[in-house]
Design goal:
The chain is α/β, with parallel strands linked by helices. The protein has 3 helices and 8 strands; from the N terminus they run E-H-E-E-E-E-H-E-E-E-H. The protein has a single domain, classed as 2,3-Dihydroxybiphenyl 1,2-Dioxygenase, domain 1 (Roll). The mean pLDDT is 87.
Amino acid sequence: MIKVKQLAHVCIFANDLEETRRFYSDVLGMDIQFNFLRDGAIFGFYLNCGGRSHVEVFQKDGARFSEMDQINHFCLEVENIDAAIAHIASMGIDVTARKLACDDTYQAWLRDPNGVKIELFEYTGKSAQFTGGDRVADW
C-alpha cells in the first residue's frame, strides 16, 4: 500500500515566463528554488510554497506537452487570508472577498498572468480537512 505524504508540486505553463515569475514572487511572496535551463537559457523554474511543496512553471512554447490545457486551479494555504487579500488588492490584482466555504475554510480567488486560477485558503478550527464529515456543496 502506498501512503502519500503531501502534494509535492503543481505544474503550470506560462505565456510570459518573466511576468509569471514576478507575479508569484512579488504578489504571492514565493521564492525561486531553482531554474530549468536548456541551451543556457531559463525555460522554467520551481517556486517554493513552504516546506516541501512547490509550483513548477514552464514557458508554454518551450515545454513538451504545452498543447495540453492548464489545470483547473491550485490552492495555497496562507496564515492570514485577510492580510493576503489586502496585499494582493494593493498591487492592483483582482481578488475575491473572503468567503467561508462549505468545508468551513476561508477562501479567496485570483488568477495569475496566464489565467491559472489560484485559491487562497485559511483553515479554521472547524475545517472539514481536520474534522471529517460530509459537507453539502454550495456552488
